[in-house]
Amino acid sequence: MSTLAIIPARGGSKGIPRKNVRLLAAKPLVAYAIESARQSHTVDRVVVSTDDPEIAAVSKNFGAEIVWRPAEISGDTASSESALLHTLEYLRETESYVPELVVFLQCTSPLTLPEDIDGTVQALRDERADCALAVTPFHYFLWRHDQQEGGVGINHDKRVRPRRQDREAQYLETGAVYVMRTDGFLQAGHRFFGRTAMYVMPQERCLEIDESVDFLLAEVLLRERQRQDRREKLPNPVSALVMDFDGVFTDNKVIVSQDGREAVVCDRSDGWGLSHLRNLGLPVLVISTEKNPVVKARCDKLGIDCLYGVDDKLAALNTWLKECRIDPSAVIYVGNDVNDLTCLRAVGCAVVVNDAHPDVRAAAHIVLSAPGGNGAIRELADLIVQRLETQKDAKGH
Predict the structure, then answer these.
(1) Chain-wide mean pLDDT for the chain?
(2) pTM score, two decimals?
(3) 216 and 143 assigned to the same domain
(4) Domain that holds residue 65
(5) Do 207 and 110 form a contact (C-beta atoms < 8 A)?
(6) What confidence tens digit (pLDDT) does each residue in 78-100 have?
(7) Local structure of 32: helix, strand or coil
(8) What distance in Å separates the CA atoms of residue 140 and residue 5, rounded to the nearest whole number?
(9) DSSP reduced 3-state for 212
(10) Torsion of CA 256, 261, 267, 272, to 10 degrees
(11) Per the structure, how many domains does the chain have?
């Protein structure tokens, strides 16, 4: 069953100017919908409908196709349906492409996960429905104002206050995901027609970006999600941490004096993070091809093992792991450049700093938020501490 995801993203947002490309947790807002659609198991193709060159460029960078939206359906009063219908018509005329299902995603719902898209599609299939939407449980009492009575209950009798568990289940439309059978949608011209299925989406993922304050809330929630995702990717158990030096402890730059001596700048917060790991008894090793004794001097000060001036990092890593009787699958390796690739691929968890070489980022299980020399090690150390404490609690029980 062919399934097309369409993400309408016009450039003329007035409530929050340039909303769709505004950075949220280090990524443009529209990128979240694109990534979720591309990671979905049920979506075959992802298209962004836009009238804006910047949105188009960002969307292409994150892997979406572009269908240019005409000016007459790009204004404030244009409906989302008009963008969906235009996209379908354009693809049919230019490619003879007509998908069986259309998934309508709103880029203003950045907390949506691929499983929410798949769940909404599956709800349509399971119920043999014509359309489906993502909803979330709603337990609140709604009121309206009446000229004579004042406050009047909408979804309840104000004289009766039933407990939540005694009330009929009600659901709130999240605005995140809609799925339609294409033939029915083209005939009806709107997203709700025939039998409608509902996919129940967890409340913690239901947030629409309408006001500036929504960006602040979404930032907090996404940052926490990113931390949880990274923590879950760490080995369980964590048995050792191995790191490169240049570009990890440092920003990959070197200070050269007139007599040829070299110096580097390190982040003190990284040292605090490593000291915590050392106090917890986690083996820590630095392996560096750099021959400058500054590597050993820094490691000696931090009280961690160091191998520097190493020509073959992988051989050095394997020898150390064998001597310490450590399973490579329980090891974290942190690098930043292509000479770290062999080690990154040899361990259970490959971690790179945020400014790592693109080839190295592609091989990583975890990409840290911080660049090398700017708290990246501290960021990882905090995640490891949380993981180790979880392991300790599990053993205690």
Answers:
(1) 92
(2) 0.79
(3) yes
(4) 3-229
(5) yes
(6) 899 999 999 999 999 999 999 99
(7) helix
(8) 32
(9) helix
(10) 180
(11) 2
